[in-house]
Amino acid sequence: MNSENSASSTVSRRRFVAGMGALGVAGAVGGASLVGCSPKADDGKKGKKGGKGGEAFDIVIVGSGGAGLSAAISAYDKGVKSILVLEKMPMTGGNTNYSSSGMNASETMFQKEQGIEDSNSLFAEETLTGGHDTGDSELVKFMCDNSGPAIAWLNDLGIKLDSITLTGGMSVKRCHRPTDGSAVGKTLVPGLLKAVEERKIEVRINCDAKELIKDGDAVTGVKVEEKGKAYDIAAKAVILASGGLGANIDMVTKYRPDLKGYVTTNQSGATGDGYAMAEAAGAELVQMDQIQIHPTVQQEHSQLIAEGIRGAGAILVNSEGKRFFNEMSTRDKVSAAELEQPGGFAWEVFDQQVYDKNKAVGNYDKAGLVVKGASVAELAEAIKVDAATLKATIDTYNAVTTDGKADEFGRDKGLIAFAEGSMYAIKVAPGIHHEMGGIRINVKNEALTASGAPIKGLYAAGEVTGGIHGNNRIGGNAICDIEVFGKNVGEVVAAALTK
User: Which of 124, 137, 379, 439 has its CA at 20 to 30 Å from residue 452's CA atom?
Assistant: First the structure.
């Protein structure tokens, strides 16, 4: 069991909140654009009548997050026009709406333009190391090797991710964000939806997939409920892109009882439906106990604080005003160290430089999550820590940059010297963030049984799959995962159906 588990009692009093409520983001993210107005298929693209009075499509995709939308687009562009995307929520985008850090990718067009030296092999090595060598090396290699082409593919769709920063566990700047440095989800989801709309791919919201239909050993469709009506949809292929389980406390605690009481960064639709459907159809679920907690979550509103803020230079201090760990280490290690501090929380402290480099901070500030001071002393008073201790902490941290001193916690990335003037802090603690386990797949995104045999007609992509991240996911790798494997599964299925 991970080291952070031993300290779980520190936060056991915390309520379980499903939601992203702090920013009131429902009206600000791209997913809202399809509420009540799913794009309609042209003649010849609509589902034909199927069995039991239902419809029939070539491909049915369960979930409208980054993986599902990417699968729909890539399959369409490879020749399959009869596609239906199902979304149980009243808005599209899933957790991708709230993705903050960016998309890790190597050997990209933008890295080359900016003179950043990187390699797919180094990306894969650091991903495997970050997951403590428990990830599937074949899947990791495939993801990293195809990350650069995925960035180019998104760019061709009008989704430009050319602002590049660091995340914990990476030694090279490879986390790609929108040009203005804003949260990636707010650019990615609208861009993908625009491409879906342009192709007139049908997205059916408020339509809840309940069960996979099988004929013998093959998956041949989906049972759904919509507006109180149950019906069947036949499909030549079903792609599960239904996301994680972070908003389902019963399922979370089934696999990780120690996480009872933690807040979650997940939107309320992340209830693990895809895991249950896939398992019932014969797929193997792997590493389901590997549920990641994220170290920087504002607890009252379950708001994840973007990792890029630490990558730009922010530090973590405890209630005594002291740093306690390398802020750029992996999420599991930072979370464990945080939980060992008095009260099990930290203050994420930064200056005006960091504030200005991360557009997300402005949103946190507007939501009332940021504590401000005109100086270090004023900030210390505002967050109730000793001013002399906080000043000494910041002076020591600054000296790593100004005097070339070694950092006492081994941090060697994302270091800056804080400037005189305004200082800021956000109170953070760990929260449930990502299910790293899931449906066992291969590099063709085929859902596999326990014996490793593909289940005919069933594919999966995104957080619903397992084995890629191992027991710790690197910040920025979730978007890489959903884009690489989302694009890939669409192409794979299209190739199989258009032979």
Answer: 124
